[in-house]
Amino acid sequence: MYRLIIFLVLLILLTSALYVPVGIPYRLFSIAQVSPLEEWRLTQDATNGLAAIHQDYQSGRIRRINSWQFQRGDISAMELTIPGDSIRQVELGDTIVRMYSALVQQEILDIENELKALQSETKVLTTGEKIETIQEAKARLEQAQTQLQIRQKEFDINKDLFEKGVIARLEYIRSENALEQAQAAVTTAEKVLLVNETGVKIESVDFNRTQINNLQRKLAFLRERRAGYVIRAPFSGSTAPIREAGEVLILQNLNTYVLQIPVKVEEMRYIDAKVKIAVTDPFTGKIFEAQYLGKSPQTQVIDSRSVGFITALIKVKEGGENLTLGIASRCEITCGKLNPRQFIARLLNFRIQR
To answer: For 55-91, how does the pLDDT look when each residue is reduced to its tens digit (9 = 90+)?
Structure first.
């Protein structure tokens, strides 16, 4: 009888406690995957081609993919203005990679040499100055013709080797340019000899000036093209150390962090826009307040439990401490305050009818 009375008293006390007007915080605990707001990765493949992927972690989509493919032997050098294994601040539009084309550079040098020869020849034609005697002009012509024969033989050999895949395209183009340069030297020597023998010809001057104008336009185009072999930062952010083979540079926007937080499917109904999310950096121990963004419509199975995902943002003030990436961060999600009956009902995962 005594035990029954004690049991009834305890039952009454417990039942009364369910109706005490006390607010009990209901919290969920999870581990968040932390990512930068956006990330840009530059990689290089076995053929020396470059590819850049711009990933937006807030939307989960790839914003843009760029690629740069080059002929074998074209790119003679690639310079990173920021070392790939360092952490530096980069502003939007900053040049972060410079590439140098051997083919374009060689073509520029050839045109500059040809341009100088034409300008010198035109000066002789227009001023009537005979810098060289007829004998010297003949000797220069013979020398130019000999060089042309040598360059022709070299070109024929390189052409055959290139077609068989023995030499790179760059070597073939260099021999082709050398042949064209030798042909131009012969033509120039013939004109100089003709001028020395017969005097100035107006049509030769006009022809040379036309050629000079065409070469200057081509030279300007090539210089502009050479200046275009650069890659600029698509957004302001910080570089990150490279993580895998083939990666050249990683740029991250660390002003905002995106969190993907797994939550049990049966507890997703308690998540709304009023929740408060506190994230603890496991490396520094600093606590960050995250802003709830939304729920993901997809679910996954983790450790034999079905989970959904909520997305949250952490905005870092300028000059503030950053959140550590690459390490799972502990999350505490406060879903408001409950009375004792609601609290017990959620713990037991069923509702007590009023």
So the answer is: 998 888 888 877 766 655 555 556 677 665 567 788 8
CB 27 within 8 A of CB 335: yes
Sequence-distant (≥ 6) Cβ neighbours of residue 269 within 8 angstroms: none
Which pLDDT band holds residue 258 (cuts at 50, 70, 90)?
A: very high
C-alpha torsion angle, residues 120, 121, 126, 129 (rounded to 10): 80
Q: Which of 91, 50, 85 is nearest to 68 (CA)?
A: 50
Look at residue 132 and tell me whether its pLDDT is greater than 50: no
The pLDDT confidence band at residue 257, using thresholds 50, 70 and 90, is very high
Which two tokens mark 136? 């010297």
Beta carbons of 316 and 258 less than 8 angstroms apart: no
Q: At 353, is the pLDDT very low, low, confident or very high (cuts 50, 70, 90)?
A: very low
Give the DSSP per-residue string, 297-330: EEEEEETTEEEEEEEEEEEPPTTPPPPPSSS-EE
Predicted pLDDT at 312: 92
State how far the Cα of 203 lies from the Cα of 285, in Å rounded to an integer.
Answer: 84
Query: In angstroms, what is the C-alpha Rg of the chain?
Result: 38
From the centroid of its chain, how far is CA 204? 51
How far is 108 from 221, CA to CA, in rounded Å? Answer: 10
**Exposed/middle/buried for residue 332 (C-beta within 10 Å: 0-12, 13-18, 19+):** middle
**Residue type, position 187, single letter:** T
Instruction: Give the three-state DSSP class for 235.
Output: coil
3-state secondary structure of 52: strand
The CA distance from 182 to 145, in Å, is: 8
What is the CATH class of 22-35+253-348?
mainly beta
Distance CA 342, CA 348 (A): 10
| pLDDT attached to residue 227 | 52
Is the distance from CB of 159 to CB of 178 less than 8 angstroms?
no
CA atoms within 13 A on the CB side of 282: 11
